[in-house]
Amino acid sequence: MIKSELIAILAEENPHLYQRDVERVVSTVFETITDAMAEGDRVELRGFGAFSVKERESRMGRNPRTGEAVPVPAKQVPFFKTGKELRERLNKDYNGGD
């Protein structure tokens, strides 16, 4: 699913809202999560999961074309950990079909 599909579904399920308002809400939610993570904060959505930032240390990598060793600088990467409810819902068919 892409952002525009999410907006369309939410607008369809909430006919009392204008699509432009739904777009604004979805964009605000994503911007708020992004801003919090950019500041190093953790964002937890109970039952869904938690977004956080992990640090990757600098290391030596290899250029796949030449095999030459190249330094890879330290960086921060986004990390998502699923919540219990989401994990259970994803695995219900594998655990006896709850």
Question: Any chance you could write out the topology, listing elements then pairs?
Answer:
Elements: H1 3-13, H2 19-38, E1 43-45, E2 49-56, E3 59-62, E4 69-72, E5 75-82, H3 84-90
Antiparallel strand pairs: 1-2, 2-5, 3-4
CATH homologous superfamily assignment of the largest domain: IHF-like DNA-binding proteins
Figure out the total of helices: 3
Portion in beta strands: 25-35%
* DSSP, total strands: 5
Helix content bin: 25-40%
Q: Radius of gyration, rounded?
A: 19 Å
Please describe what this structure looks like.
- This protein has 98 residues and is of the alpha+beta class.
- It has two domains: 1-39; 42-93, HU Protein, Chain A.
- The chain has helices spanning 3-13, 19-38, 84-90, and strands at residues 43-45, 49-56, 59-62, 69-72, 75-82.
- A three-stranded antiparallel beta sheet has the order 1-2-5. Strands 3-4 form a two-stranded antiparallel sheet.
- Helix 1 crosses helix 2 (19-38).
- The mean pLDDT is 93.
Short descriptors:
98 residues, two-stranded antiparallel ribbon, HU Protein, Chain A, three-stranded antiparallel beta sheet, 2 domains
In short:
With 98 residues, the chain is α+β, with helices and mostly antiparallel strands. It is 39% helix and 28% strand.
